[in-house]
Amino acid sequence: MRDVYIVECVRTPLGKGKDDGALRHVLPVQLLGKTLLKYHLDAKHVDDVVCGCVSPINQQGGNIGRLALLQAGFPVSVPGVQLNRMCGSGQQAIHFVAQAIASGDIDIGIGCGVEMMSVVKMGSDAGSMLFRKEFLDNFPYKLIHQGASAEKIAVKYDVSRKDCDDFANNSHLKAGVARNLGFLDGQIVPVEAKQQDGTVITVTEDEGIRYPPNRASLDKLKSSFKKEGVVTAGNASQITDGASAVLLASADAVKKYNLRVRARIISRVVIGSDPILMLDGVIPATKLAVEKAGLKLSDIDLFEINEAFATVPLAWQKTLNIPWEKVNVCGGACAHGHPLGATGAVLMTKLVNDLERTRGRYGLQTMCIGWGMATASIIEKTDKVLEPFSPTKAKL
Questions:
Q1: Nearest CA to 115 among 340, 370, 348?
Q2: Which residues on adjacent β-strands are paired with residue 362?
Q3: For this structure, is 334 an active site residue?
Q4: Is 338 an active-site residue?
């Protein structure tokens, strides 16, 4: 199997997925297209574009992966496809491209994702199927809302409401500090976006971050899925608009096109787990990714775990005993939001940049997924230059 390198990774700012969100009036195909333009490589050399999108209908339908690359001006010879592994879609897109490169099928590909939750509402792709009695009565599992699963996680792993609110507060705190110190600037592609009043602004920052956070305000929120439960709108991921893309290449392509290497993918897994409890698959997925990489958990310098609900990283950390100072060091989805199909690529972009900034070596990303699944990846930051890099020689 061939080595697979991350050559570049970018994301848009993440906007509130509401009618007054900063990105609300940008078309999804245009938003994703913005992330496909920032590479020091002629687009004709890209062998495939794989796009994660959880609600691939209406403005996000029609194979948005292919449409976005055409929107971005790629030659018609470049193919594209969309996939839906629910919240793990963006990460799965990266995995599929990495697998194609490792096998020798392609040399260069883009794993990306997009979700405009202000435009295409969450769950709209399933229509009424999941609520039809004839379907539910004959299905082998009693399907429940993810929020209800998050409450079950809290009970199983003894996670309190205070734990969840403290975690969410810290997510905003870390994200706000990271934004103010400029840690996020290099990974974000500015987006020009029309606003409700007709003006056009340039969006450069994640819209959902509240800094300084107000810890007391979290105590006042009502539980969302269970009376006296722990999950609230404040300690779960925000409804969000966003897109992200990761450019991957083989060693041969890196040499041929004089590309800079930023990280190497050394492990990638996806697992199934209990479809009712649903959200704790991140625990076995993390263990399996570490095992496949031939590492120990203590070898990992930074972790990115999606904050779909605060109960998930809290249960994961409690079980695996991972030091909090290594986890989501620039905040997570409780603060910047969770644009479903895009989040996997967003978190990978953050992880690559944070490993470079902190001079760490290994980073692990994991995400819980609806109906009981989880993805996980381990990357190794590397400054390895397979051939002397010169910007003047790069194939722009």
A1: 340
A2: 380
A3: no
A4: yes
